[in-house]
């Protein structure tokens, strides 16, 4: 797999199994309203993203199930029966069924007693439902039991997205382990990013690139064993903030999306916007833009790790 291509979603995996590489996420600035495919016509039981269930009874664990299959009668009932038959309790269910497509999408959060429903049996039960409904995607995670997602981060000269990601990871606000950081821009040993990585034992690799040599094979070797790769403003050229400032825009935005062969055209995971005005200086404009980019990237990573993201048609996503 080329490092700049989007691979198909990974199948459900049992606990402690190897992590395949199956996702790359990129952050890019965007003027709101100009990105193709930025809206989805949908019919949902709940459209508001909610935090992961906080009220988990003592001795119980939280489980998350993400599902995609051909639409038919009885899917929610079957999922509910599976969880209830094992003594579990559903905390939330989000469902999306497109008006013109015969496809069912859902995300469920539930609590259960691991003594009554061991992890391997939980996996088998949901796998049985997946086979019953001929599901294209059925993934179940137990955050307190399953390994965290392993990520590798690709960065360039700008540090704001990279360092924000590292800070959130240090604070436990991103459910990931960082495998390594790869940059096409060298940083001195006393650089704050380098010092942070050294303190936490995270390898840093400097791989300078040229238009004729993107070092793809070396990158693939370095990210071996990684679940997904995050492009934290990697190889972003030009000065989009200055260009938008000079154009006098009134709204600025940032987009996080899957990576495909077409630059900045992958399916969108998250978008954020903020209003600016004639009172903004170039400096305040850049600060607002960078803050949006940091928040947008972090939210995209968190959404993916919490099983909130599913591919929808060719260039869209369902984000619960």
Automatic annotation (TrEMBL):
GO terms for molecular function: hydrolase activity. Residues 236-301 form the Formyl transferase N-terminal domain. Transmembrane segments: none annotated. InterPro entries: ACT-like_dom_sf, Formyl_transf_N, Formyl_transf_N_sf, PurU, PurU_ACT. Keywords: Hydrolase, One-carbon metabolism. The keyword Hydrolase applies. It holds the Pfam family Formyl_trans_N. GO terms for biological process: one-carbon metabolic process. This is Formyl transferase N-terminal domain-containing protein.
């Amino acid at each position: 797999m080329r490092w700049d291509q989007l691979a198909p979603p990974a199948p459900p995996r049992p606990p402690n199994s190897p992590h395949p590489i199956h996702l790359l996420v990129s952050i890019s600035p965007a003027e709101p309203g100009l990105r193709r495919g930025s809206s989805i016509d949908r019919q949902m039981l709940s459209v508001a993203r909610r935090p992961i269930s906080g009220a988990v009874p003592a001795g119980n664990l939280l489980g998350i199930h993400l599902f995609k299959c051909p639409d038919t009668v009885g899917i929610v009932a079957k999922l509910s029966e599976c969880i209830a038959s094992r003594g579990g309790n559903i905390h939330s269910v989000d469902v999306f069924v497109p008006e013109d497509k015969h496809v069912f999408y859902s995300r469920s959060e539930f609590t259960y007693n691991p003594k009554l429903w061991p992890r391997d049996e939980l996996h088998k039960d949901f796998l049985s439902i997946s086979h019953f409904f001929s599901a294209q995607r059925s993934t179940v995670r137990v955050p307190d039991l399953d390994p965290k997602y392993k990520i590798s981060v690709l960065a360039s000269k700008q540090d704001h997205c990279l360092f924000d990601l590292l800070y959130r990871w240090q604070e436990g606000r991103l459910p990931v382990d960082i495998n390594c950081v790869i940059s096409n821009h060298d940083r001195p040993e006393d650089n704050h990013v380098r010092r942070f990585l050294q303190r936490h034992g995270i390898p840093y690799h400097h791989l300078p690139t040229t238009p004729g040599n993107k070092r793809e094979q070396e990158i693939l070797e370095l990210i071996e064993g990684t679940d997904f790769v995050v492009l934290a403003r990697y190889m972003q050229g030009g000065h989009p903030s200055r260009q938008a400032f000079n154009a006098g825009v009134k709204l600025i935005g940032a987009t996080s999306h899957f990576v495909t062969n077409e630059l900045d055209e992958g399916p969108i995971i998250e978008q954020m916007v903020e209003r600016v005005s004639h009172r903004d200086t170039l400096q305040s404009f850049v600060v607002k833009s960078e803050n949006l980019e940091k928040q947008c990237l972090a939210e995209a990573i968190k959404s993916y790790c919490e099983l909130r993201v599913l591919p929808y048609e060719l260039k869209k996503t369902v984000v619960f």
